[in-house]
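Dear colleague,

Following up on yesterday's call, I've attached the two folding results inline so they're easy to grep. Please treat them as preliminary; we haven't cross-checked anything against experimental data yet. The first protein's sequence and structure tokens come first.
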Amino acid sequence: MDQPTTVPGVVARMEAIASPLPRTDGIACFTRLYLAVTQGVQTHLAGSVFQDPRYLERLDIAFADLFFDALDAFQRDPATTPHAWLPLFQSRSERGIAPLQFALAGMNAHINRDLPVALVSTCRELGVALEEGSPQHHDFETVNTLLASTETQVKQKYVTGWLRAVDRLVHRVDRLDD
């Protein structure tokens, strides 16, 4: 499949990845979380939240391309898959792994491996420096806030049963420590 050139194209590609997969598939779990964040970015790009929407759109596309490339590599030849993605891709059908664990494993691979690459390549391509106080830094921080909000919403969908009880207990203890 061709790489998307717009954020709506990224959304469409993610929908195409997730829709045929079982809800419990690890790749589907991560992709649904990532899709929710990307849809939030898409909504905010249409408004006036971002100071440099051109930069942020390019970063969003470059970032997503790295996930798509990793998934394509795994499907074509698992030996060529970036190592950070292997735990999610290889365990995607294992029983006993909570959907939230799959989503967080994907976030870990994508943020820790792919984000620095996407940031550097986007800044070089557009000739900008991601300096504190810059419009690009502001927009990057805005996406972090969006990610935290979306993660909380998605977590409520993924955390059920005993896992929800443990989560509530842990967060109650955190509040008592404050």
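Below is the second protein, in the same order (sequence, then structure):
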Amino acid sequence: MNTLFIDTHGEVVVLAIYTDEKLMKKKESKERKDHSTICMPLLVELLTESKLDIKDINDIVVVNGPGSFTGVRIGVTIAKTLAFTLNIPIRMITSLELYLDTIQNQEYLVLNEKNGYYTGKIENKLIIEYEYIKTSEFDSWALNKNIVFCDKINYENLIVFAHQKEETNPHVVNPFYVKKIEVENDKRS
């Protein structure tokens, strides 16, 4: 079984092919271009180097956020389109869940973002609460909390976790936003 992994939540675009949950090939692009101009050529390159046709993909795992508003939408749109047109299963994993395999006994997982932090409360190796904390509020929020900053992703093992997630109808796969946009922050009660 060939799984396509798509991650566009941050500055780096990561695409990977797993065969029977073993990482076969991973491609990254750290170019400072729009993800929209990077993803499809990178996918073609990944498939070519893996000697696979798009029809050889049996399921898709996509990182649906939190992260870059536009980046997440691009990855989710590509994943949904491929899953629908190929009639294959799709699973969602959050950007914080990418790091669950690398933590020990912390209570909170923290992912740095341009102007703040995405946080997740961990319980039984699952993230049960997500929150966005502004940089100016982070020190007081983190006080007396057992936190770990997201550091490295274990790409070898993340697919095993992802395959434990429920298959989802491509039509209901959506970006997961934690950070409120400025319009929502400005709403009056």
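For the second protein, one point worth flagging: Strands lie at 2-7, 13-19, 22-29, 59-63, 90-93, 108-113, 116-123, 126-134, 147-149.

Best wishes,
A.L.
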